[in-house]
Amino acid sequence: MSYTAPMKAAPLAPLLLVAALAQPAQAATTLTLQPDEAASQDVFVYEFAIPGAFGIATAARVTNLDSQTLNSLVPLPVVPFGNFLGSSNTVPLIGLQGESRAHDTRSLLRFDPGGLGIAAGQVVSASLRLFALPGLPPFDNPTPAQPITTDLHRVTENWSETGVTWETQPAVSGALASVTQDGVNQWVSFDVTALVRDWLTDPASNFGVELRQPDIVIAASGKPLASLYASSAWADAGLRPQIEISAIPEPSTAALLAGGLGLFGWVGRRRQEP
Question: Where do the Ice-binding protein C-terminal domain residues begin and end (predicted)?
Fold first, then answer.
């Protein structure tokens, strides 16, 4: 007498698996990292070799221009440098005493995405967003007729927000992204997807980014063009620097369960084969 095992559970598992596959994929969610001054690391360094300018006792190239440092000066500087970030590249001017009057500026920023609870593989895209402000009197503003380009570089060594100066600024890699700006009072966005993935994979490699202007651009007014951005100390919290990340959430428990049942059904069928 021969005996054939009854087929009971086999049809159920494929149905469960089909149902799981039929469920819509989880959509990407947007995460925004926008720290305030206390939790941030952003500062700009300024090449200006004249002590006493803007109410700062020492030359700006050897003075830290972070708000925490500047706010400790008595009297306070005439210009609240710590409230903004900048990027410029100008032709050096020579003063009556032969001093250099260059106005080159570069900005350093560092964000820590580790607290967002996502892994590198979940990151679909990431952007560094800065709000462009009108320029200070020595500079002119970019326009559609005369735009300005700013490059983003990966910083490759450590730096301190309250200690870095033009003379001690960290090393950087080649430009990873470039943005052409044609106005002010608008958001400027840099693609930092690869950087954010790297920082999540290896947090020890996160030394932040530097913004610098690759070319000297002189406006029709005779003033150099520059980019000026709200910093983490800007009064309007909504305009402070931010990293916006689009990420796919982890698979839901239900999807994992359905997938597991599908695998169980496949194993069951294998066992029933002669």
Answer: 247-271
| pTM, to two decimals | 0.80
Question: In a structure prediction context, what are the per-residue pLDDT tens digits for the chain, which is 274 residues long?
Answer: 444 444 444 444 443 333 334 445 578 999 999 999 999 899 999 988 888 888 888 888 999 999 989 988 888 888 888 899 999 988 877 666 666 677 889 999 999 999 999 999 999 999 999 999 998 887 899 999 999 999 999 999 999 999 999 999 999 999 999 999 999 999 999 999 999 999 999 999 999 999 999 998 888 888 889 999 999 999 999 999 999 999 998 765 334 434 443 443 333 444 444 4
Q: With contact defined as beta carbons under 8 Å apart, do 102 and 95 qualify? A: no
